[in-house]
Amino acid sequence: MSKEQNSSSLAESLPQMFFQQKRVCELKLPMLTHIIIFFIGLTALHFGSKWVVKGSSRLASTLHVRPIIIGVTIVAFGGSAPEGAVSIVASFKGNSDIVLGNILGSVIANIGLVLGISAMISPLKVRLSIIKKELPLMIGAIIVFYLMALDLRISRLEGGVLLTGFILFLIYVLYQALRDRQNSLLAEKEYGRFLKSERGVTSRFLLLVFIGLISIIGGAHLLIKSAIFIAEEFGISQLVIAITLVAIGTSLPELAVSTVAAYRKEADISVGNVIGSNIFNISFIIGAAAMINPLSVEKGTRLFEFPVSLVFGFLLFLIMKTRLEISRIEGVFLLTLYVLFLISLCFFR
Q1: What is the span of the domain harbouring residue 156?
Q2: What DSSP designation does 151 have?
C-alpha cells in the first residue's frame, strides 16, 4: 500500500474514531451523573429521616407527649421513612416493580443483612415474648402479603386491609407498652435520655421536621429516577435494582440502629427494630402504595422473591426459638444466605 493510500485511509478513520470516542463519553457521562444522583438521593433520605425523628421527638417533648408513645410511633416511622418515601413516590409514578422490589428486598435485607451483622457483633438474646407475639405477627404479615400477590395484583381494597392491619398493630403495641409496666418504665428512661439532650423553640423543631420531609421526598424522587436509568442502561430489570441497590440503601437506618444496639448489648432494640420495621413496611407502606395505585406483581416475583422472604421469616423463627438467641455463627449463616440470595438474582432474573 502506498504512502498516499495510508494517509487517505488514516484521514478517513480519524473522524470515525473521534465520533466513536465522543459517543462512549456521552454514554459514560449520563451514567456517572445518575450514579452520583443515586447516592445524593440516598444521602437525602438518610439525613431526612434523622431530621424528621429528631424534630418530631423534640416537638413531642415540648408538648409533653410521653416518650414511650414517641418510641412506637415517630421513631418507628422515621426508621422506615426511606422505604415509605421511595415506595409511595414510585406508586404515584406507576412503578410497581420498584415498590415491591424495595419492600421485599428490605424485608429480606433486614433479616439477612441487618440481623446477620448485628449478631456477628454481639450474640442477640431474645425474649420469649417476642417469639410468641411480635415475630408471629411479622411472619403473618408476610404470608398475607404473599396470598394477596397470588393473583398477580394487589388491589386498593387489599391495600385498605393492610392499612387496617397496621392500625390494629399500632393499637396492640401501645396497649402492650402501657400494660407491661416494667418495659414501659425502661422505655421511658431510654427515650427520656434521648429527648433530654436538646430542648428549644417549637418553631425550630417544626422547621426541622419540614426540612426532613422535603429531603425525604426529594431524595426518593432522585433515587427512583437514577435507579430506572441505571437499570435501563445495564439492561437489568427495575425489580432487581429495587431489590438490591434501593432496598439496601433504604435499610441503612435499620442497619445503623440495630448494629449500634447490638454493640451496646441491647438485643431487644436490635431485634425489635427489624421485626417492627418489616411489619411497618408490609402493612403500612404496601397498604398506602396499593391505595394510591393498585400494584401489579410479576410471575417471577411470586415464584422467587415472595417465597424467599417467607423462608427468611421462618428461619429466623427457628433460630430464635432454639436457644432464645441469635449466635455469631447463626449471624454468619443469615448473612451468607443473604449474599447467596443476591447472587441467585443473576440466575433467576
Answers
A1: 24-348
A2: T
pLDDT of residue 8: 52
Rounded-to-integer distance, Cα 49 and Cα 218, Å: 12
The predicted-structure confidence for 274-305, as pLDDT tens digits, reads as follows: 888 899 999 999 999 999 999 999 999 999 99
Residues 6+ positions from 120 with CB-CB distance below 8 Å = 328, 331, 332, 335
Here the CATH number for the domain that contains residue 139 is 1.20.1420.30
Residue 18 located in a structural domain? no
Which pLDDT belongs to residue 198? Answer: 47
267 in Cβ contact with 261 (< 8 Å): yes
In a domain, 13, yes or no: no
> What's the rounded mean pLDDT across residues 23-32?
54
**Confidence (pTM):** 0.75
- In a domain? residue 123: yes
d(CA 253, CA 50): 9
Q: Report H helices in the chain.
A: 3-62, 67-70, 76-92, 96-109, 116-121, 128-129, 135-149, 156-179, 181-196, 202-234, 238-241, 247-250, 252-263, 267-280, 287-292, 299-303, 305-323, 328-348
Could you give the number of structural domains in the chain?
1
What distance in Å separates the CA atoms of residue 262 and residue 90, rounded to the nearest whole number? 33
Burial class (CB in 10 A: 0-12, 13-18, 19+), 4: exposed
